[in-house]
Design the sequence.
């Protein structure tokens, strides 16, 4: 089983739609959780960290469910510029090694 | 904010030659640097973790004699792909971690696209 799993998509949605991604992780002792955005042929950019209490940044909301070992990302009012690959990343139980999921492709169309 | 400068951004080399990729932390000290590789349409795969002044820790399946990592200072880590072959063609990215305990942040370099011909 992979350490971090994501649905690769692609998710094709119209502008203005709400879209949600999930990501599951296998290490129950993982401590830190992140969502990154990666544009084609570029390095990943941090979108947001994910906390147990949930956190929101504008149109983006992230949730963590430790009991079920998954994290989610909700994007409201999708924009064309949101088109990218969204990677979830999780640290291990010891140290700060960051492990990425395979990424979910989002395509927002007009 | 923290910046990691990675270069070259792209390189084309002949099969059998070696290529060195550098990552520098510009305004902070990177005690730990991670090296990732990303093949087309795949995710970032961690290759190794390097700590300043000590030997790198390689992930399973990564050849330490082929991918030489040096982290001689708190601001510079290098990855050398030795005797490169076409199957080593990939996108290589470094990432420096900052923070302590479980409060980590990660700053990524801009990546190096390696093509071996």
Sequence:
């Amino acid at each position: 089983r992979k350490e971090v799993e994501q649905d690769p998509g692609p998710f094709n949605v119209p502008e203005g739609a709400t879209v949600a991604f999930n990501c599951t992780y296998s290490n129950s002792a993982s401590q830190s959780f992140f969502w990154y955005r990666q544009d084609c042929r570029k390095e990943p950019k941090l979108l947001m960290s994910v906390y147990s209490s949930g956190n929101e940044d504008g149109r983006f909301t992230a949730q963590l469910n430790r009991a079920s070992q998954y994290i989610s990302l909700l994007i409201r009012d999708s924009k064309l510029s949101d088109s990218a690959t969204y990677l979830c990343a999780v640290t291990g139980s010891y140290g700060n090694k960051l492990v990425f999921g395979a990424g979910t492709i989002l395509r927002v169309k007009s | 904010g923290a910046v990691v400068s990675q270069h070259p951004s792209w390189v084309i080399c002949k099969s059998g030659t070696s290529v060195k990729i550098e990552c520098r932390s510009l305004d902070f000290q990177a005690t730990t640097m991670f090296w990732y590789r990303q093949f087309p349409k795949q995710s970032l795969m961690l290759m190794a973790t390097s700590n300043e002044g000590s030997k790198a820790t390689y992930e399973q399946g990564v050849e330490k004699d082929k991918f030489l990592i040096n982290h001689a200072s708190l601001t510079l880590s290098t990855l050398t792909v030795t005797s490169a072959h076409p199957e080593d063609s990939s996108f290589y990215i470094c990432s420096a971690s900052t923070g302590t305990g479980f409060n980590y942040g990660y700053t990524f370099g801009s990546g190096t696209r390696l093509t071996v011909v």
